[in-house]
Amino acid sequence: xxxxxxxxxxxxxxxxxxxxxxxxxxxxxxxxxxxxxxxxxxxxxxxxxxxxxxxxxxxxxxxxxxxxxxxxxxxxxxxxxxxxxxxxxxxxxxxxxxxxxxxxxxxxxxxxxxxxxxxxxxxxxxxxxxxxxxxxxxxxxxxxxxxxxxxxxxxxxxxxxxxxxxxxxxxxxxxxxxxxxxxxxxxxxxxxxxxxxxxxxxxxxxxxxxxxxxxxxxxxxxxxxxxxxxxxxxxxxxxxxxxxxxxxxxxxxxxxxxxxxxxxx
Length: 265
Description:
The structure is a single chain. α3 (141-160) crosses α4 (180-187). The protein has a single domain, classed as Spore Coat Polysaccharide Biosynthesis Protein SpsA, Chain A (Alpha-Beta Complex). It has a seven-stranded mixed sheet, with helices on both faces. A three-stranded mixed sheet has the order 5-10-9. It has 265 residues and is α/β, with parallel strands linked by helices. The protein has six helices and ten strands; from the N terminus they run βαββαββββααββαβα.
């Protein structure tokens, strides 16, 4: 298996996520056949018959809907493209995504579309923030430590609920449970005076400019990253993206939950 570039998926907590990951892998094999796809999952699903589509399958993941934060640190690739399992690849341009991270940078992200966000803790009108459903990152010791800390920070927040350093700065109910909240603090998107901030990590937008991203420095219609992380609820006209340009489409695994909520999978 080539180790320079590849896709990493994670499926835990709910069996339809594994089905979704298998379907995503199948689509990646169609449109990016030269790039391996590996899966991290719970031990009980390692031998699932549908896992033949993956180049490698690794167990050891906990039954958590944020287990991806634990899996990211274990990527064998020099450049990894992480994708949420509830996505599908629909465009032969998929291999080009690995060109979306600049030389000298550690990570590249797409933006959350604030008009489609379920909850926010940042200033919507003036700031764009990374979407945790997809990212590119280079393998290095500091990136491994970053991923480890992302998982640890999320666990800490779940166990402690809140911290006095956030009082009056963020609304509690709009940060609870979100993996993006510690991510944004670690990347210095929201502020750069938090103990979780990692100034050693250099990042940028996928095929875009350097952060921070404000209305003065970025225009939705001038952005190219929407097609790489297309989410239900995005507005094609507002984004300036034709549907035949979309590469990775998020269809939401909530559809799986609705279909299989009676345990038929």
